[in-house]
C-alpha cells in the first residue's frame, strides 16, 4: 500500500511547447511536475530549462485541447485540471492582427489575444484615437463576402497589392497597459473642427510624430473606388443576405484565441451599436470619419435601403464635398492658423461641462406639455380597393393622436385615439413631388395597424414627424430633444429641396467627376453618366457651403434618418411558428419582420422589457415584456449569444450620461452581455 502523502507527491512528465521565433533552437521541453505545482512555478521551471536570455513577461500557457489560457498563475495544475496528456504551448499574449477599418483601409497592430474582446477593442481604439470604444467590436467576414473576394482575385491577372498601415510603436503593442489619459478629453488630441486636422499642440502630449501622422490618415476620407471595384464587392440583395452580414460578431466576453483567431488573421473593426454618444468634432475627427465611412459603404453596397432622392443627397455630400475637401486638406498644412491652445481647449470644455450644456431648458418644459392641432389627411389602406383619403382635425397630446370630423367637434369624443408608444414611424417623403407622408405601424394584439398621415408642407411635416418619433419612444413634445428633432428633419428636407442650377446643368461635361463612384450600382444601371452628374450637381447646391466635418456630420445625420438605420438582421424561428422570420435588433426595440415581404409584423420596445434569458441547452432566447407578453425564439443565421449580447449591449449603452466618468463599467457590461453558458 502507498500512503496518501507519497501518492500526492508523485511526479509525472508534462511535455511543453515553446512558441519562439529562434531558428535552430529546441521548441519542445519535457518537465517533471507534480499536481500541486502552481502555473507560475511551471513558467519559472520552463524558462530556466530553455536557457535563452530574453524578455518572457508577455508569455503565458495556452491549453490547445481546451482552447483556454492558464492566466491564473497562483492556481495549481490539479486545480486547472492539467494532466500528462495536456498540450500546453508557451506563447506570447500579444500578437499581430490585421484590422479592416470602416473606411476599408487595413491596419496591422499588436493586440492582446488573451484579454477578452471587449478589453482588446478598448486598447485598439486607444491606439487609433477613437473615443467610446464600447460602440465598436470585431467581426469575422461572412463566407459569401470571402467567396466573392476569392473569385475576384482568381479572375484578376495581377495580384492586388493592398496598402497596410502598421502600428507597432504603441504602449499597448508592447504588452503594457494603454495610457488611461487618452480617455480624458483634455488629453485627447484636439482637431480643427473645420478641416478635421489634428492640432500639433495637444497631440504631442501623448504620442510621437508617427502616431500624429497615423491619426491624420485615419481622420481623412480617401477618393472613392472605381465603379468596377464597387460592382465586384458583396452586396446583400435580400433580408436573408443582410442577416449573413451580422453572423460573425465575436463574443465580447471571450479572448481572440478562444474564438479561433490566429496571428496575422484579418478581422473587421466596425461600429456594432448604432448609438453614437457625445460626438464632438474637437476630439472625434477619427471617430466621425470612421462612422461616416461605415455609413457611406452601407449605402453604396445597399446594406441599407434609401430612395432615389436620398441617394442623390448622399452622393452630393460625399462626391463633390467630402472627397474634394479631403484631398485639399491633405496638402494643407494642418498647423497653420488652426493651432489650438491646449489650456484654452481644456478650460472651454470644462466651462461647457459645468454649465450643463444647453441653458434653454425652461421651467415651462416641465409644467406644460405642448400639443399639436391641425388639419391632416388620413390614408387607410383598404384590401382589394383603393386607399381611402379623408381630411380630419388631428390633435397630438402626450404620446397619442386623436382625430375628429372637424375643428368644432374637437371638444367631444374623437373618432379614434391612437397611442403611438412602441409604434414604428416611417417617413414617406418626396420633396420634388410635394409629398410629405408619415407611415405609422401601431402594435395591436394580432400584429400591426397601418395608418398614413399626409401633411401639407415641410414645416407641418417636421413638427408632426418629430412628435411621432418622440412618442414612439414614450416621450412627449415637452422633452428637450423635440426642437432639435424638428430642426434635424427640416435641414434634411432642405437638402432634398434643391433648385436646378442652370450653369451646372448645362455644362456637366466640364466637371471632372465620375458619378458612378458615388451611387450604388443599381442607380448606375438606371441612369446615364451625364444624367447622374447633372442630378448630383443639382443636389449639391444645398451643401456647397459646408465645412468638411460639417458635411460628414450631415451625412451621418441623413443616414440616421433612414427608416432602416441601426437595424441588425437575424433569421429566427419563433416558438410555436412553422416558418422562419427575420428579427431586426435596434438600439431601443426588436422587430419581427416577414421574411417574404419585408413588412414589420410586431415591435417590442426594450423600455417595456422585464427580463430576458437564454436556455443554453436548446439555444433559445426568451424575453418577457409588460402586460404579460412573452416571446421565445431560436436563431438560425448566427449563435443566439450574439442576439443576447446585442440586447444587453444596447441596455448597457443606455446607462451612459455626460455627467458620468468616461471610464467603462466593464463589470456591468459583462453582467448584461456575458450569459451563463
Automatic annotation (TrEMBL):
SUPFAM superfamilies per the UniProt record, alphabetical: PH domain-like, Second domain of FERM
Subcellular location: Cell junction; Cell projection
Chief place of localization: other
Keyword set, alphabetical order: Cell adhesion, Cell junction, Cell projection
Keyword Ribonucleoprotein: no
Coiled coil start-end: none
Molecular function terms from GO: integrin binding
GO biological process, one term: cell-matrix adhesion
CDD domains: FERM_B-lobe (cd14473), FERM_C_fermitin (cd13205), PH_fermitin (cd01237)
Annotated PH domain residues: 377-473
Positions of transmembrane segments: none
One cellular component (GO) term of this entry: cell projection
InterPro entries xref list: Band_41_domain (IPR019749), FERM_2 (IPR035963), FERM_central (IPR019748), FERM_CS (IPR019747), Kindlin/fermitin (IPR037843), Kindlin_2_N (IPR040790), PH-like_dom_sf (IPR011993), PH_domain (IPR001849)
Family listed: Belongs to the kindlin family.
Name of the protein: FERM1 protein
Encoding gene, per UniProt annotation: Fermt1
